[in-house]
Structure formats: C-alpha cells, structure tokens
From TrEMBL:
<keyword id="KW-0175">Coiled coil</keyword>
<feature type="coiled-coil region">
    <location>
        <begin position="12"/>
        <end position="113"/>
    </location>
</feature>
<protein>
    <submittedName>
        <fullName>Uncharacterized protein</fullName>
    </submittedName>
</protein>
C-alpha cells in the first residue's frame, strides 16, 4: 500500500504540475491572443485610414481633373477667339495692302498723265534749242 500510495502521490504531484503548466500556457495563450487581436485591430484601423486617405486623394484628383478640363475649355475658347481675331486682322491687312498698292499704282499713272504734257513740252523745247 505504501508503494501504491507513493505512486499515487507522485501521480497527483505530476497532475498538479501539468495543471499548473496548463494554466500558465493558457494564460500565455490568452495574452498572445489579446496581443494578436490588438495588432489585428490596429492593422485594420491602419488599413481603413489608408483607404480613407486614398478615397480623399481620388476625390481631390477627380475634382482637380474637372477643374483642369474647365480651364482647358476656357483656354481653348480664348485661343479660338484670338485665332479668329488674328485671321480677321490678317484679312484686313491684306485688303488694306491691296488698296495701298492700287492707290500707289493709280498715283503713278496720274503723275505720268500729269507730267506727260510737261515732258512733251520740255522735249519740244529742247528740240528747238539745238
């Protein structure tokens, strides 16, 4: 009986040690689980924060793209108006240049007609002198 009792006590001691070890491992597991959950939550919050920043950046980019398109549209309208004005001014310049050339040609013809009698007179006078 002593032998059995000694074995029984060793068995009980071993079971108590195993229970204590189990309790320690259970506590360590609970700590690790809590740390894991906290890390998972912080990663999730970080991910959500980054997603919200990305959405905000996308919204800002979309707004800037719309603004840029409006600015380009206005710029194009100004450029088309300026080009039309330049084309109109070039046409007016060509018309005025043509009028000036015509006027100068008419002036030369008029001067020739005005000077022709005088030149004939001078030629006649010079022919009589010699």
């Amino acid at each position: 009986m002593v032998k059995e009792r000694g074995d029984w006590e060793k068995y009980c001691d071993r079971l108590l040690r195993q229970v204590k070890d189990f309790e320690k491992m259970k506590a360590a597991l609970a700590e690790e689980k809590a740390a894991f959950e906290a890390e998972r939550k912080s990663e999730e919050w970080g991910r959500e924060f980054l997603k919200s920043k990305l959405r905000a950046a996308e919204d800002l980019l979309a707004k800037e793209r719309v603004d840029w398109k409006e600015i380009c549209k206005k710029d194009n309208q100004h450029m088309y108006a300026a080009r039309a004005k330049i084309t109109d001014l070039e046409a007016q310049n060509a018309t005025l240049t043509k009028k000036v050339e015509d006027f100068e040609a008419d002036k030369e013809r008029f001067e020739v007609r005005q000077l022709q009698p005088f030149l004939l007179y001078v030629a006649f006078y010079l022919s009589k002198s010699y």
